[in-house]
Amino acid sequence: SLDELELFVYANRHLPGIPDQAQIEREGQNVGEIQRMLLEKVEELTLHVIAMKKENERLEQQRALLAEKLSVSQSSPHTEEK
Predict the structure, then answer these.
(1) pLDDT averaged over the chain?
(2) What DSSP letter does each residue of 13-76 carry, written as one string?
(3) pTM above threshold 0.70
């Protein structure tokens, strides 16, 4: 989840599955492997963006429905009992 990802990044200062700077300095880097890892992260983040877009659309539909209901209830004539 994005919450878990956020916690990981704040705690470790790098994306999960990506070596940190100290590890790269100790072990060197395989440019092809780093590119593979980064592509994997781009794909994961793209899936997160798609999920967030769908959630945003769902929330917008709910907001529009609630606004419509509120508008209808405010425009309905109220009958007063005498």
Answers:
(1) 89
(2) SS-TTS--HHHHHHH---HHHHHHHHHHHHHHHHHHHHHHHHHHHHHHHHHHHHHHHHHHHHHS
(3) no
Torsion of CA 71, 72, 74, 75, to 10 degrees: 110
CA dist., res. 11 & res. 24, Å (int): 18
- Sequence-distant (6+) residues with CB within 8 A of 20 are 12, 13, 14
Lookup: tokens for 58: 């769902």
Q: Which long-range contacts does 19-24 make (Cβ < 8 Å, 24+ apart)? A: none
Residue 21 predicted with pLDDT over 70: yes
> What token pair was written down for 48?
């997160």
Calculate the CA dihedral of residues 38, 4, 21, 25 and round it to 10 degrees: -80
